[in-house]
Amino acid sequence: MAWVLKMDEVIESGLVHDFDASLSGIGQELGAGAYSMSDVLALPIFKQEDPSLPLDGEAKHPPFQYVMCAATSPAVKLHDETLTYLNQGQSYEIRMLDNRKMGDMPEIGGKLVKSIIRVVFHDRRLQYTEHQQLEGWKWNRPGDRLLDLDIPMSVGIIDTRTNPSQLNAVEFLWDPAKRTSAFIQVHCISTEFTPRKHGGEKGVPFRIQVDTFKQNENGEYTDHLHSASCQIKVFKPKGADRKQKTDREKMEKRTAHEKEKYQPSYDTTVLTECSPWPDTPTTYANTSPSPAPTFTSSQQSTCSVPDSNSSSPNHQGDGVVQVSGEQIQPSATTQETQQWLLKNRFSSYTRLFSNFSGADLLKLTKEDLVQICGAADGIRLYNSLKSRSVRPRLTIYVCQEQPSGAPGQARRQAAGGGESGGTPYVYHAIYLEEMAASEVARKLALVFNIPLQQINQVYRQGPTGIHILVSDQMVQNFQDESCFLFSTVKAENNDGIHIILK
Predict the structure, then answer these.
(1) Which of the pair, 387 or 25, is modelled with greater confidence?
(2) Judging by beta carbons within 10 Å of its beta carbon (0-12, 13-18, 19+), is residue 224 exposed, middle or buried?
(3) Do 213 and 223 form a contact (C-beta atoms < 8 A)?
(4) For the chain, first and last CA: distance in Å?
């Protein structure tokens, strides 16, 4: 039995030696002390490992590490992501650390790399509406930026750039071989993007994300190297300190058993690896001294098709047949869905729904659309998807008079559903959204294929055959579902026509 225990000690000692050798030097840039690998092996994660599986000493590790000098919250459960509280406008250091092993990435040896720091939304629904959210913030805070670099306090950063149209991103060059620290300031607070309900507000979390690129063969910094991010909440000045104190006091009141379910608070926040921000990297060449960078963030719409209907708020589908044709079908492809969005004045959301088919769009609830598009556009989009057409203010039925027909006979036969000489008198329904004479002329031109510019006047035949000019007031006094025959006569100067309602 003693021999077995002795062998276990030898094996554990050998493992400690191997891990010490493979992990030597990690964390030295942060000034951390030496790791006790005996304590590391005692962690539950190692105890659960199958001893028959070989340990991968050559596991891939990130080339860089970013550490923000701000304490993490103690009120975060063990398996959740860390959360860091920041004060609005306060400068926080992000240390840019070279984490490469000897011989890793020799192509960037002695060269600069480019990093882009962004403050973005953590919530996926807010990511979908990022452009609208930031535009609203910009409107309420003219001249301000969501994210700034505190350049006087920063160390080792070169050629810093910001774009006035991208308020949430900054970029710079830096040398991994030298000490580099970027001091950032976040000016937006978490409660600026939350709906105010029942008098209370709960701030939304943001993310600080760092994306790093190297030069390609053309000298442009477009080849992605590494990305990492962390979750933050931003409070008004000194609010983060109060929130941190509140969380700490709450944790102190918990029992020892409850405390085991929560992470300890650390003095610094290590950004964890993540996917690169879905951008085309900025063209950033050393040859041009300082051109205005062209960010291509997900905030920008890639669809430049003009919204042809936006100039006419009353422009709707004319006629019943076209209204039914405008309804999106579940079988619609992504391209057809894009066309439907453009046709129905939702051009600003074409990029947002670029991968949505008709079925995908129809599955969204009213609450989903309001959260994604905002209250006004969300309700409008929901009504358009459900074909909630506006009831017309007035409906009239119109038939073009046949040259050989008698008007009185036409009225009698139309009412009785008969025919005259085998030719039925077909009336067309005209739906008026505006009680105006110009709307009557426009709808008549549309239904009967008459060029609108050729219609000079619209008259109504009155007693003894007199012609009364149709005015807005006359239209407002039409009875709903009135029936009219109409004929056309040439104008006196043969320039256009007059329409006579009978």
Answers:
(1) 387
(2) middle
(3) yes
(4) 115
